[in-house]
Amino acid sequence: MNSGISNKVFIYLHTKLGLSYPTIHLGIKLSIRNNISLPLALWSYNLITTDELSKFYDFLWS
């Protein structure tokens, strides 16, 4: 898969946030289609909670 996200991010979403691989792929497709960041795509389509969004940003900024 050539999604434009690193393996580290993909693994974080799967192991730490518990997202399934199809959910991560859906988030990627939505972020590309709507020209928004992956975290916002996941959150705006209720694929992650606000708390998970905050944790995801903390991970990305660390």
Description:
This protein has 62 residues and is mainly α. The chain has one domain (7-61). The chain has 4 helices and no strands. It has helices spanning 7-15, 21-34, 38-44, 50-61.
Summarize the structure.
The chain is an all-alpha fold and 62 residues long. The protein has one domain (7-61).
Computed CA radius of gyration, to the nearest angstrom:
10 Å
What is the H/E string? Answer: HHHH
- Total strand count, please? 0
The backbone outline, from C-alpha atoms, is globular
Q: Kindly state the mean pLDDT as a whole number?
A: 93
Q: Which structural class do the helices and strands define? A: mainly alpha
Unreliable residue stretches? none
Head-to-tail CA distance between termini: 25 Å
Number of domains: 1
Helical coverage, percent range: 55-70%
Largest sheet: none
Q: How many individual helices?
A: 4
Percent of residues in beta strands? under 5%
What is the secondary structure topology, with strand pairs?
Layout: H1 7-15, H2 21-34, H3 38-44, H4 50-61
Helix pairs in contact: 2-3, 3-4
Keywords:
62 residues; mainly alpha; 4 helices; 0% strand; globular
